[in-house]
Amino acid sequence: MAQEFTGITQACEAFIRSIQEGRYYDAHEDLEYIWYVRRFEDNDEVRLWKGFINAAVSFELLKRGRPKPSETAWKTYLKYSPFLETLVTPHKEHYVRITQILERQRGELCPSF
Asked: What structural domains does the chain harbor?
């Protein structure tokens, strides 16, 4: 079950656990708590969170048998994922791990892509 987090590290760790356990809706919620209050900031880290959230939404939509909307959400993840390359943050290690997990999960859920 998704919980409310105040720290970025805590939210990222919860997001990773939720994705790995196939609880994609919860994963979305895990990051939504930190993203929502900062969603209007002109900040690449916040944009990256939005991408991660959309990846979780994509997986949840696949789980519910909705491949077309899932593809739209995945494209949003892909739009924001390049921000990781130039991002300077103490949380980068978490973000790299999240990206690796999301890419692996996508390959498992959509082996033809």
From this structure: 8-109 (1.10.3450.10)
pLDDT digits (tens, 9 = 90+) for 3-62: 444 599 999 999 999 999 999 999 999 999 899 999 999 999 999 999 999 999 999 999
CB 45 within 8 A of CB 80: no
CA distance 44 to 51: 10
Distance in angstroms (rounded) separating the CA atoms of residues 26 and 70: 16
Report pTM. 0.92
Q: What is the full DSSP assignment across 12-49? A: HHHHHHHHHTT-HHHHHHHHHHHHHTTTTS--HHHHHH
